[in-house]
Amino acid sequence: MSITLHKISKQFGTFKALDNINLEIPEGELVALLGPSGCGKTTLLRIIAGLEQADQGDVFLKGDNVTDQPVKNRQIGFVFQHYALFRHMTVFDNIAFGLRVKPRKQRPSEAQIRDKVHSLLQLVQLDWLHDRFPDQLSGGQRQRIALARALAVEPSVLLLDEPFGALDASVRKDLRLWLRHLHHELNVTSIFVTHDQEEAMEVSSQIVVLNHGKIEQKGTPSEIYDQPKSDFVSRFIGQTNVFHIEDDDHGWLKSTGIIVDDPKGIVAHVRPHNISVEKTADPANSPVYLKDWQHLGGTIRLELQRNGNHSPATTIYAEMPNEQFKELALQKGEHVTLRIKHAHWFN
Amino acid sequence: MSAMNPSFSHRAKPLTLNDSAWVRHTLVVISLLTIGLFLILPLATVLIAAFAKGWSTYAASLSEPDALAAMRLTLLTAAITVPLTTVFGVSASWAIARFEFRGKNLLITLIDLPFSVSPVIAGLIYVLIFGAQGWIGPWLSDHDIKIIFAVPGIVLATLFVTFPFVARELIPLMQEIGHEEEEAALSLGASGWQTFFKITVPNIKWGLLYGVLLCNARAMGEFGAVSVVSGHIRGLTNTLPLHVEVSYNEYDFVGAFASASLLAGLAVVTLVVKTFLEWKQKQDLKAARQAAE
What we know:
The structure holds two protein chains of two kinds. Chain A is an alpha+beta fold. Chain A is built from ten helices and 18 strands. Chain B is globular, with a radius of gyration of 24 Å.
């Protein structure tokens, strides 16, 4: 195990930021710590780094208990949301910093430092910026320099705090894939914090979902998406339609394919792509009609309105491929029949 | 009117510029007159009076032993107080900007105390503590330790009036800059001292110099607090400002104004350097804000 957290708890005043966190992260993984703001994910990352002290519990890096070690002895690389580049130093000096502050015996020669910095600059594809100052760079460039600086000391663990949070949407998209590929190349165990589930799905090999200082679920992006363990995870990862069995119209639910005779819980969560939409032969008896639809690129999102007999009107979201939607040739306001292909049940 | 004149409305100038010429000129003239009357004229008078009997009298009165002793004492006081205030200022602003602790607001308030207390009171405090009739005065005289009417008293009184300068300057600056860069340095393996000297100091250097400069000007120019504790012993406990007063009272006008001209020169140099540092510091703050965006 590259990183092991054992019973980590942290309190800020009366606010419980982390509550008994146990987590093991194997060597070479790229893990996303995912959760809404205030869930404790950044605090957990800072505790791993040693920038924050846990109230209770132990942190192990590569099997060594580093709980009482200061950050400088932990051999971690930390990338900050706002880059934290040294503003009075050039890009070159920023990256060289970690090498130059080493004790004299371990410090490489200036020539070695120069080679190392240039090879890192080539790795992040910004060698031509070596003599610039941070305020002359764009956000995306700053973040890549910050990453190169963290990598210069050859950390055993790379920690990234909302690394794409301060960037424009288009730059963010590029950097996500770039980070994933870079990780494949370097294979250094990495954890990054994000509140963006799409980002977590796209970049990481493992996702840890946090809520209210507790781990809700840990797994690969597919596991998290296809087998959410809790109501929270299901709602937080991707869009989902929620049906309350007790409150809902059993007759209607049955007609859509939800098994209400033997329910596996009291709430059914249905992903938009697990709802199939068909033209109805009997419009008079169908309570559901197409209210609106949006083009999401390859797929179409359908906004379906259901007028309940005794419940207020609800909106159901369904998604289908572009071509299928064209074949269906639905008009706004047209009544449809729904089939629910798959649901997750929660209590 | 400005709406009819497009070239005017294009410029984003403050509305006050639309005031009539009469108002504008009056305000400018009042400001210039005030500065002339209360700043330029006295400064000129000091120089005129100092050189009233020619360059050689001026030089002679400055090289007189008592004047030289006053200069030495002023420099010594500054040399002791400025480093101490700097260390205090950096530690206090570091503590306030970086940590949350009980009594933080009290500390911030207390740092401002010397600004709100009359310097004479500051001097009296030390007389009441260390003076012959003071709390520990008898014990001090038993052990032959002189504080009041001696150099230690002068240094203490000067410390009291100058200790907010550096801290006041650095607290807002360090709060603005934040501590991510320092955390980054630590995560890269730098020690606490390396982080301080390679990251913190370069980031705050202009604000620090600004504070040191103001502190130095005050340390050298302080009159009230020092006057109470000094005892005005010529050649021993007179600082330059006290020397000016003593000479003047003894009708040695050239001597008084010659010494005063040194202090005035210090003030002018301070003003010029201060303007430069303010400009530098503004740039740093701007950079800090940009980096935080």
